[in-house]
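job 3f2a | input accepted
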Amino acid sequence: MDKPSDKDILQGDFFSPGQKDFSLRRKSFLWGAAISSYQCEGGNFNCDWHLWEKEKNLAPAGSACDHYNLFKKDFALAAHLGLNSLRFSAEWSRIMPHRDTVLGEELAHYKEVVRSLLSFNLKPIVTLHHFTNPIWFAQKGGWLDDRNIDDFIKYLKATVEALKDEVDTWVIFNEPMVYVYNGFIHGSWPPGMKSLRAARRVLDNITQAHIIGYAQIKDIYKKIGKTVNVSLAQNLHYFYPCPEFSFGTNTLAAILVNKVFNFSTLDYLVKRKALDFIGVNYYSKTYIERKGFSGAQCSHANHKERKNSLGWYICPGGFYTVLMALKKYNLPLVILENGTAENTEALYGEYLVSHLKQMERAIAAGVDIRGYLWWSLLDNFEWDKGYKPCFGLIEVDYKTQERKIRPFAQEYAKICRGSKIG
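job 3f2a | predicted structure (422 res):
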């Protein structure tokens, strides 16, 4: 198989129409991995998550993977594994530690990150918001107040302007529904609220920020005569009715949850023409039972699918179902996150191959998929779960910051180099 040229991978050709058989699309298909700033960089004390850890006495992110300083080493390992793309996030609270301050040295840092990626022939996909907010933003109401949208847009414009010459693919928000649910309904993430009204307001404001940000990014690139592709990363579950009791009413509940959680934001943004592609994050199956007038995660804990180390139900067939459901939007898809945390090495490879086969099946059925990124390149800080879950292609010793490639990552490397499963 011919090695892709830098132009093929780094200048957006993966958004041109592709073959149904991705083994024939090596020059355009993205094989990569993803990371996020707070989970990997370390040394971030200016964001709301840092205060939340102190308030709730949680394990601190601390130095994390020290990726802020070791990014070149990490990108070299990614290239060694045959990856041709990497998704990372810029950290708003570093770039704007105060409302009226944009730090040029931090923008220069991320510019160096991008140039390092390009030096290893890794296409950069940049996320602007991956769950964390500057402390000053949170203290003035955060996403509850629509007047604060302008603060985010200021950060967006400064970051895009700094990186526009070498980045052509942007993800404005990562998993807005996950952020809203955990922060404003379940209350397990900052700011720890449990209010449906607040959740609705926050989702509305994030959605509007995406639409405004989308237009701003398009305008920036139009002025320099370059093409840019903009999206968000949407977390999609395979919602299935709990069969143990009240299957009929649980089915209706699952349909409702699927519509609201998986597709309501996508429906709105596609209608507003604010997505150039759909970023897909998929991990697992979630059983739903009726609760009140809606639905909730099933309380029955012993369904037949196996669970990973976090207790998530593993269902490759659900991946296919979700991908097929996205076909209606008639937009390219990029799998921005797919992965698992396991206690047994063999289960990583099993998860990887079984999900890639379902992706291949969806492509053969006409779903326009342009790339697949594993979560995560590195073991990292998994929010309220701390450091115990291990998603990485690369194992990290957090005490010594030593890296070690996991055996299943070598299997992924063969797939990346040959665009062929099995």
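job 3f2a | Confidence is low (pLDDT under 50) at residues 1-12.
job 3f2a | closed
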